[in-house]
Write a sequence for this structure.
């Protein structure tokens, strides 16, 4: 399986994401913001960081890059899975590939800690711990998105509506989450719970 | 973009702020501070971002159209933000 890790100017979690994907058996390649054709990849990872300095609002400038424009056709073709972690989630929301938006935390601080979460995927619920690191991670939405949520905070660190930490789109082909699963993967990290998220992505890819 | 000589320059000033139903935490902090200092009881403080830039267009109408596009697509996200054009005038 081939995966692409997107590197914008200011992205800083690409190395961990690539290492985690490779440990999970993906053939991984970095792609830059000018990439126009993504059809060779089975999954696209938008990793964390501060793309384009988070100017205007986080993810706003990255939204206008050729890569994000090519994501629309990637989604239309139902080619594979798109996953956005942290800044990637913000970009996906800004590009309206996922509903809602991410705004400044209620505490007005950069939150960086290990957080307990509830993973609810395909009917099985599980408690996991993942690190979060963001300043604009408060999820806000209009309408009803509860059926698309797969990850909720047990101790809400940022004031997200309904404790939402991660969700997918109606076809389960695009997923976005605020915590960093790639930072809970190896012996050196905070536990191994991040593997659960990568497992979901792999299972989704196998489903076809 | 080729800028023709007939193009006019316009100066635009825009304010982008959070929609009324979105909690403005920065505004709330200032609100509390004003209350604590006994300056204002209920200031209903809201914060926003101010942008000032130049637009080239053939006439005022097309300048407005261009400005609305910039504001709605680039400077704000309609899910959480609203924009207000506070000034658009021709540069002499």
């Amino acid at each position: 399986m081939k995966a692409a890790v997107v590197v914008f100017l200011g992205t800083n979690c690409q190395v961990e994401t690539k290492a985690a994907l490779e440990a999970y058996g993906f053939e991984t390649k970095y792609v830059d913001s000018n990439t126009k054709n993504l059809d060779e990849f089975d999954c696209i990872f938008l990793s964390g960081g501060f793309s384009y300095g988070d100017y205007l609002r986080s993810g706003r400038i990255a939204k206008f890059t050729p890569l994000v424009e090519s994501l629309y056709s990637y989604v239309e073709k139902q080619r594979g899975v798109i996953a956005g972690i942290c800044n990637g989630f913000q970009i996906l929301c800004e590009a309206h590939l996922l509903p809602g938006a991410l705004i400044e935390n209620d505490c007005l601080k950069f939150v960086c800690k290990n957080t307990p979460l509830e993973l609810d995927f395909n009917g099985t619920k599980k408690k996991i711990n993942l690190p979060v690191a963001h300043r604009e991670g408060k999820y806000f939405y209009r309408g009803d998105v509860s059926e698309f949520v797969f990850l909720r905070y047990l101790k809400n660190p940022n004031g997200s509506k309904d404790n939402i930490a991660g969700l997918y789109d109606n076809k389960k082909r695009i997923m976005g989450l605020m915590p960093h699963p790639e930072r809970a993967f190896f012996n050196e990290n905070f536990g191994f719970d991040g593997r659960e998220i990568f497992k979901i992505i792999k299972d989704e890819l196998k489903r076809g | 973009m080729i800028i023709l000589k007939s193009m006019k320059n316009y100066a635009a000033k825009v304010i982008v702020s959070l929609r009324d139903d979105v909690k403005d935490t920065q505004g709330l902090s200032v609100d509390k501070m004003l209350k604590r200092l006994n300056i204002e009881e209920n200031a209903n403080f809201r914060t926003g971002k101010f942008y000032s830039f130049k637009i080239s267009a053939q006439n005022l109408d097309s300048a407005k159209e261009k400005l609305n596009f910039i504001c709605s697509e680039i400077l704000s996200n309609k899910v959480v933000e609203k924009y207000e054009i506070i000034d658009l005038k021709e540069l002499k």
